[in-house]
Design a protein that fits this description.
The complex is a heterodimer of chains A (about 400) and B (about 300).
Chain A (H helix, E strand, L loop, with lengths): L1 H23 E6 L2 E6 L1 H26 L15 H13 L6 H26 L7 H19 L3 H23 L4 H21 L1 H4 L5 E2 L23 H5 L5 H26 L3 H11 L1 H6 L4 H27 L1 E2 L6 H14 L4 H17 L7 H15 L17
Antiparallel strand pairs in A: 1-2, 3-4
Chain B lengths: L3 H33 L6 H19 L7 H28 L7 H23 L4 E2 L7 E4 L7 E4 H23 L1 H11 L1 H6 L4 H27 L1 E2 L3 H16 L4 H21 L5 H15 L14
Helix pairs in contact in B: 1-5, 1-8, 1-9, 1-10, 2-3, 2-4, 2-8, 2-9, 3-8, 5-6, 5-8, 6-8, 9-10, 9-11, 10-11
The chains are: A mainly alpha (about 400), B mainly alpha (about 300).
Chain lengths: ~400, ~300
């Protein structure tokens, strides 16, 4: 017990040292001078909390040690078709009855679902930690923006090309770096993501620099514009064609449906891919690279295919993002965005698609609900990442794979 | 006479002082990597926290205190080193020790989470906006090399180089001759063997984190005094660049980190001077990618063999 109190005192002392200069002595600017506003109560509070926590921890561990964290059921690999169709039908129908802001948030969720599923191919299936995923997202967004700006292309023409351009970037950048080991690869991809962002910021003549490109049109419905008035003389818009009064809500619902379509497409393709020989090879490579090599698999080619496909989905997501926002600038593609997408994959459970979808919903909807705590958002986000790695590194809904075990 | 030589001298000096800062941070990366093989992604944040603690100390002393400037700087350094040492210790205990021994990616993701946490921790406590650091050391040596262009060597940058060189010598001697240094070298060669021989490896790992954090804090205080402003997000880019420096010199090698830091500082300064200042960050990232591609072991590193 005495030993315990000693270590708790030490922990409290360290907490005090750690908290004091950041929260205890807050710097306040007053005109040209910087003054100090001491908040010793915060320091005392933090130290006391740590002290008490440290004392009761052995007891807590005993109390909660026997309780297993809920091991959620393994993500169903096949699933009941009827349930899936019902869920999709529900997802298609509800926005017609939902409020505008809810549908808008749902669209955002679907963008992150798409990105999460794309990154899941790279991180979850193939086990390559990619910290520059947002770079490919940016390439997709800027492909559409630039094609519109310089050549007047519409969304539907630009979408395949945005995916293709991102995939090409993934291929060209991935080719040399995929020989590297896990954590080196992570840092190199982070470097690529930053290089892409810095280039977008600095190539002002092409990309508009920090201001980006604005006025990007929303997607059309089979070539028919969706706006209050036709942008060209003699054109018709959708609401005129259908004889409906103009309503902004239509656009919101339409964007939602498109995002849903893209997300379902991503889900379908990645779900099929992972059962193909290439998908099996990804997972085998993740588990043991040396064993794969000795079985005659070419690691570079397998990794490259995962990297390229992941980048392609990021490109689709980027083009859709550009169309939805109507404006792109380099600010949307910082490292934090990469970390957010990575957090979605990690939180969901690497390789588990259902988990990724769940995590995308959680990480997008929770901050929207807790708007008054907006300044704590990133703090909590970092903390959750650390805690998840400690307690449940396999994610919320880890995928259970069919496997055979030798009898002991 | 042309301005070429004076310009070159000026850029060399600037690059050297920038590189000294990178070297100070890079040592922390390289020591941690050498001993437990993980990239301490939150190390850049320690540098930023060091700078903030320096500013808090300076504000507490006040600029009109009448104390001699070297004493004020020394006080800033001592307080910053003490506090960031506690940070290094606490971070290792809270975020890295529980995941040690697991897959590398788990530790890396935990470190990324820690980095995001610390940035916003400081942003919440001290505000996310730029803070001005009062100019403590002004003046410069003007060097006339016989042309129109005078080489300016500000005292603050001279201080960076002097302090860094002194610390490097002290660190090298410490690692080479002290008990702790010998134990930590043993750990980086073979952790299990060191443990069997009675070295408390947990203590050595904590010591490594604390030492690395202290050196980064020195870098933070020195740069805050020189540049004159800071914000909670300066650690990210500086951290990545210092990591580049560590990789350039050969990760795991302390002299390599020193060399890599200086080389990176020079490369960046010359790129800013002779190509374009907008692209200086790209130069650092490009250098990182190129080294990892062509010489992943760095300049002074030993090749690592992967075994089954």
């Amino acid at each position: 017990m005495a030993n315990n109190i000693g270590s708790a005192l030490l922990a409290a002392l360290i907490t005090a040292i750690v908290v004091a200069p950041v929260f205890g002595l807050q710097l306040v600017r007053q005109g040209a001078r910087t003054l100090m506003a001491p908040h010793w109560d915060l320091v005392a509070l933090a130290s006391a909390t740590v002290f008490v926590f440290h004392l009761v921890r052995p007891w807590l561990a005993r109390a909660f040690g026997s309780i297993r964290l809920p091991t959620l059921p393994a993500a169903p690999t096949g699933g009941d078709r009827r349930v899936i169709f019902l869920l999709i039908a529900l997802a298609v129908v509800w926005p017609f009855f939902g409020g505008r802001s809810q549908v808008d948030i749902a669209t955002l969720v679907l963008i992150y679902v798409m990105l999460g599923l794309g990154l899941n191919i790279v991180v979850g299936f193939a086990g390559l930690l990619d910290l520059g995923f947002v770079g490919f997202y940016a390439v997709g967004a800027y492909t559409y923006a630039l094609l519109y700006h310089w050549a007047g292309w519409g969304f539907w023409e630009a979408l395949p090309l945005a995916g293709a351009t991102s995939a090409l970037f993934g291929f060209v950048l991935g080719f040399p770096v995929l020989r590297l080991r896990g954590d080196y690869l992570a840092i190199v991809t982070l470097g690529f993501g930053e290089i892409i962002r810095l280039l977008l910021t600095n190539l002002t003549w092409l990309t508009g620099g920090p201001d980006g490109i604005s006025g990007i049109p929303k997607p059309s419905v089979f070539g028919i514009e969706m706006a209050r008035r036709p942008s060209t003389e003699g054109g018709t818009t959708l609401h005129q064609l259908l004889g409906l009064p103009f309503d902004n809500q239509h656009m919101v619902v339409y964007l939602y449906l498109m995002a849903l379509m893209l997300a379902l497409f991503t889900l379908f393709v990645s779900n099929r891919l992972v059962r193909m020989p290439i998908g099996r090879a990804w997972e085998a490579l993740r588990e043991d690279e040396i064993a794969c090599r000795s079985l005659g698999l070419n690691p570079t080619r397998i990794k490259l295919s995962a990297f390229t496909l992941g980048a392609m989905f990021a490109g689709f997501g980027g083009a859709f993002f550009a169309a939805r926002q109507g404006l792109v600038n380099p600010e949307s593609f910082t490292f934090i965005e990469s970390a957010l997408i990575l957090a979605i994959v990690v939180l969901g459970g690497m390789g588990s698609q259902l988990g990724v979808i769940l995590a995308a919903i959680l990480l997008t909807v929770l901050p929207e609900l807790a708007r008054e705590f907006a300044e704590y958002r990133m703090l909590m986000f970092g903390l959750v990442m650390v805690l998840m790695m400690m307690w449940r590194p396999q994610g919320l809904l880890p995928m259970k794979r069919p496997h055979v075990e030798l009898a002991p | 006479m042309s301005d070429f030589i004076p310009q070159l001298t000026q850029q060399l000096f600037n690059g050297l002082s920038l590189g000294a800062i990178y070297a100070l941070i890079a040592i922390g990366y390289t020591m941690v990597y050498g001993i437990i093989g993980m990239i301490n992604f939150a190390h850049g944040e320690i540098y930023m926290i060091g700078a903030y603690v320096g500013l808090v100390t300076l504000t507490a002393i006040g600029t009109q205190s009448g104390l001699p400037v070297p004493m004020i700087v020394a006080a800033m350094l001592i307080v910053a080193v003490a506090v960031t040492g506690a940070y290094g210790f606490a971070i290792e205990r809270v975020a890295y020790r529980p995941v040690r021994g697991g897959p590398r990616l788990v530790a890396l993701i935990s470190a990324i989470g820690m980095s995001i946490f610390l940035q916003n921790w400081v942003a919440l406590g001290q505000g996310a906006r730029d803070m001005a650091v009062p100019a403590l050391i002004s003046g410069a040596i003007q060097l006339d090399l016989g042309s129109d262009f005078n080489v300016t060597l500000p005292y603050s940058r001279i201080m960076i180089i002097v302090v860094t060189v002194a610390l490097m010598i002290a660190l090298t001697l410490y690692i080479r001759h002290s008990r702790m240094g010998r134990a930590s070298r043993a750990c980086s060669q073979d952790m299990h063997m060191a443990n069997l021989l009675g070295i408390d490896t947990n203590r050595i790992i904590s010591f490594t984190f604390v030492l690395g954090a202290m050196l980064a804090a020195v870098g933070g205080v020195l740069i805050a005094v020189t540049i004159g402003k800071l914000n909670p997000f300066i650690g990210f880019i500086a951290g990545i660049k210092a990591f580049t420096a560590a990789v350039l010199g050969g990760i795991g090698s302390i002299p390599g980190a020193m060399l890599g830091g200086v080389l990176l500082g020079l490369a960046e300064t010359f790129a800013a001077a002779y190509i374009s200042s907008q692209y200086k960050d790209i130069v650092a990232f490009l250098l990182l990618v190129l080294i990892l591609l062509f010489r992943p072991t760095g300049l002074l590193g030993k090749p690592e063999v992967e075994k089954v």
